[in-house]
From TrEMBL:
CDD domains associated with the record: WHTH_GntR
GO biological process, one term: negative regulation of DNA-templated transcription
Protein name stated in the entry: GntR family transcriptional regulator
Ligase keyword on record: no
Keyword terms of this UniProt record: DNA-binding, Transcription, Transcription regulation
Domain HTH gntR-type: 11-81
SUPFAM superfamilies: Chorismate lyase-like (SSF64288), Winged helix' DNA-binding domain (SSF46785)
Gene source species: Streptomyces oceani
One Pfam family matching this protein: UTRA
Gene Ontology terms, MF aspect: DNA binding; DNA-binding transcription factor activity
């Protein structure tokens, strides 16, 4: 499979077999639907006349790039497209609809609890004050994307825990309570997902994730939400533009 080419009249060292195979497989999976199973390593090796080790190297590179994913005992599958989250303040529902994906929410828990020190500090309330805590699994076209844990001051959203929380929370807050987030302060960290998070998100334990802690602010810069969202790192990245200051 490896070949020697010339560049500018000079011979170039032959490309490693696993790299040629990676390129060939990448061209194939690009036209395949997400979650489509790939042939077995044995079949790939036979079809491309390479060793099983070469196949593993190529698949390892594709997995590292997020083009495929592996499920122990089941095989290798085409990965879904990565969703790039910009620095604009948008809801999960808005992000998914902008990409022609069907947003869904699976409500895990909803109720009124004590704020506690950290949430109280971020929301500008007392630690013993009540907050509505909502935990949801967010999905796109039926595929788990992130876990969301929201805290809102109970005094500003009476009865929220009894509402239908399977749609856009931002829309519900705006329509029912006249609360809208116009800005947010966010912290993003890389984390290893625990067993519960992994099970809910449908990935192996210890898989990397992105944890975003957000405090949403209204027009008066008053906090209205403290939200922790844990994203699948194989489905999300955060993209933004930076510019060099001119002296």
């Amino acid at each position: 499979m490896a070949s020697t080419r010339k560049r500018g009249g000079k011979p170039v060292a032959p490309q490693a077999k696993h790299e040629e195979l990676r390129r060939a497989l990448l061209a194939e999976v690009t036209d395949m639907q997400p979650h489509t199973p790939l042939p077995t390593e044995r079949d790939i090796a036979a079809r491309h006349a390479v060793s099983r080790n070469t196949v593993r190297q190529a698949l390892n590179a594709l997995e590292a790039a997020g083009s495929v994913y592996r499920v122990q005992g089941a095989g290798t599958f085409v990965a879904s497209r990565v969703i790039s989250k910009s620095l604009s303040l948008t809801s999960f529902t808005e992000d998914m609809r902008a990409r022609d994906l069907r947003p869904e929410s699976r409500l895990l828990t909803a109720g009124v609890v004590r704020a506690g020190t950290r949430v109280a500090e971020d929301l500008g309330i007392e630690p013993d004050a009540e907050v509505v805590r909502i935990t949801r699994l967010r999905l796109a076209d039926g595929s788990p994307m992130c876990l969301e844990n929201v805290h809102l001051p109970a005094a500003r959203v009476p009865g929220l825990a009894e509402e239908d929380l399977t749609g856009s929370l931002y829309d519900l807050l705006a329509e029912r309570y006249r609360l809208e987030a116009h800005a947010a302060e966010q912290i993003v960290r890389a984390v290893d997902l625990d067993d519960t998070e992994s099970a809910l998100l449908g990935v192996p334990p210890g898989t990397s994730g992105l944890r975003v802690y957000r405090v949403g602010l209204d027009r008066r810069d008053s906090p209205i939400e403290a939200t922790t969202t844990t994203y699948r790192a194989d489905r999300y990245d955060i993209r933004f533009t930076v510019r060099r200051n001119q002296s």
